[in-house]
Design brief:
Cobalt-precorrin-4 Transmethylase, domain 1; Rossmann fold; five-stranded parallel sheet; 19 helices; 35% helix; binds S-adenosyl-L-homocysteine
Length: 521
């Protein structure tokens, strides 16, 4: 008996939310992290799987018309996997208990005496409404909200929906799975007495960068949905609260909503830029072109670290350089006191911020964040005979080293990390990029440009618009045929993001005059 009990795992039914991966519960992330198996649906955002690194991932599909695995078999799979002693996470779109068949799965687990728990998710009807600027209840407009399946054919004899009761409700009606039946839903509600002037909103792909919505009165909604080519998944929201969208619309107004932007930074560094763009509504395609790896030899680095007192200046030219240098110092049992005699320069604010994490306040940072400007800032000082240490990557330009030497300084450059090409890519992502199915590619260094191009046999992609962090990267991008539309005022990530937003706003204005289409396959 005991060994059998030991073998039984557990199942966590987890609501993945409606699309935006940021809407998932904290507890859901913890469950994913501890899962041995994740069984997920079409509607669960696959990005969430990144939290379940050690787990086996099983896709069981399920679209309205295309059941990859019948519910019975999904139930059986949950039971079988749990019986082998594993922690199974059943990841479902929205909330598991709102039109998610989570109840059926839980009953099956109960029957087999498998321990289970439920982590609710944000359900699409509430979340898509919120992202469309529609509060589902509102003082004076709606004191109740009903979540209704729109899947049923309302004309069939055995309809379980009480259309009379629904039409009589003064609260908000939210229909799920109702896109196909929209004409029937609207017809039934009017037949049972709802006014044709009742406001209706249809929100498609809610909470994702593909969100699109239309609002109209009930009598016009069908033609509006058709005209705007809205597609499933979508929720239909009926009631006076829909009028609040005029004032409370926010997500669909984000400057970058629906823009597909490729981020080419290394995986480790992409997230900051990706997050900022996502928060502005962009659909980010992470396509790392570079990878940061250890140098071929630490010997020269260790030698330099062991005689730091002999350097008057250390110049850091990247965040990666700072990290690699300080991590190595720690490994050699040294701390920042070893730098007490050195002046420290940072090429820009991100590098200075990273130094601050190690307790170092940079003594010098130029106005513009390129090597030439570091030289200019040092220009007023007498550098003759001064010893400089430059911890850097293997592919850095020689501008700084040459300039310092011209000023009479003695320079030791040490390679603390190497920048190599990243070629491990998801085939779908590669294809999307090959097809040019994006609006903008971002480059944050010359190496991101050359490596990007190299992934595609050296061919620049047709009509590719690029945003470059600074003039050096811009030059490389232009050389490879990119249309560089965006270069920020300051050569930093926040400034790059601002410049992208400004450009998008400009394009939006001109699109109002002349609609512009995405370059697509
Ligand atoms: N358990 C899910 C609902 C699954 S039923 C939840 O709680 O949200 C599938 C239906 O949910 C779709 O037909 C559609 O009506 C709705 N839906 C799911 N994701 C959606 C989204 N991102 N935007 C709009 N509607 C969505």
């Amino acid at each position: 008996m005991q060994s059998k009990a030991k073998l039984t795992g557990k199942v966590t039914l987890v609501g993945a939310g409606p699309g935006d991966p940021g809407l998932v519960a904290w507890k859901a992330v913890r469950a994913l992290e501890s899962a041995d198996v994740v069984i997920y649906d079409f509607l669960a955002n696959p990005e969430l799987l990144a939290h379940a690194k050690k787990a086996e991932h099983i896709y069981v599909g399920k679209r309205a018309d295309q059941h990859t695995l019948p519910q019975q078999e999904i139930n059986q799979l949950l039971v079988d996997k749990a019986k082998t002693g594993q922690h199974v996470v059943r990841l479902k779109g929205g909330d598991p208990f709102v039109f998610g068949r989570g109840g059926e799965e839980a009953l099956m687990l109960k029957k087999h005496e498998i321990p289970f728990e439920i982590i609710p998710g944000v359900t699409a009807g509430i979340a898509a409404a919120a992202y469309a600027g529609i509060p589902v209840t509102h003082r004076g407009l709606a004191t109740s909200v009903s979540l209704i399946t729109g899947h049923e054919d309302p004309t069939k004899e055995s309809s379980q929906l009480d259309w009379q009761a629904l039409a009589n409700l003064h609260g908000t009606l939210v229909f799920y799975m109702g896109m196909r039946q929209l004409p029937h839903i609207v017809e039934q509600l009017q037949r049972y007495g709802k006014s044709g002037d009742t406001p209706v909103a249809v929100v498609s792909h809610g909470t994702s960068p593909r969100q699109k919505s239309v609002t109209a009165t009930m009598k016009h909604i069908v033609e509006q949905v058709k005209q705007n080519r809205l597609e499933a998944p979508a929720v239909i929201i009926v009631g006076p609260v829909v009028t609040l969208k005029n004032e409370l619309d926010w997500y669909e107004k984000l400057s970058l909503l629906g823009k597909r932007i490729v981020v080419t930074r290394s995986r480790a560094q992409a997230s900051e830029l990706a997050q900022q763009l996502t928060d502005l509504g962009a659909e980010v395609i992470t396509f790392p072109t570079i990878k940061i790896v250890a140098p071929d030899s630490w010997h020269p680095v260790d030698q330099a670290i062991n005689r730091l007192h002999t350097y008057q200046w250390i110049v850091f030219t990247s965040v990666n350089g700072v990290d690699a240098f300080f991590q190595r110092m720690t490994l050699l049992n040294k701390d920042t006191r070893a730098l007490a005699a050195c002046q420290i320069a940072a090429i820009g604010p991100a590098t200075a911020d990273r130094l601050a994490r190690y307790g170092i306040k940079a003594d010098l940072m130029p106005e513009k964040f390129v090597a030439e400007e570091v030289l200019a800032s040092l220009g007023g000082l007498d550098l003759a005979g001064k010893n400089f240490l430059l911890p850097r990557t293997d592919i850095a330009r020689d501008t700084l080293i040459n300039g310092l030497q011209d000023m009479g300084a003695h320079v030791d450059q040490i390679i603390v990390y190497r920048t190599v090409i990243e070629s491990d890519h998801d085939p779908d992502t590669l294809q999307t990029i090959k097809n040019g199915d994006f609006d903008l590619v971002t480059f944050t260094s010359s190496s991101t440009v050359t490596n990007f191009v190299n992934q595609f046999d050296g061919q620049a992609l047709p009509n590719c618009s690029a945003a470059c962090i600074g003039p050096i990267t811009e030059k490389t991008a232009r050389k490879h045929g990119f249309k560089v539309k965006i270069i920020p005022e300051h050569y930093t990530i926040p400034s790059l993001v601002n410049a992208i937003v400004e450009q998008a706003e400009k394009e939006k204005q001109s699109e109002m005059i002349m609609p512009n289409k995405r370059i697509s396959s």
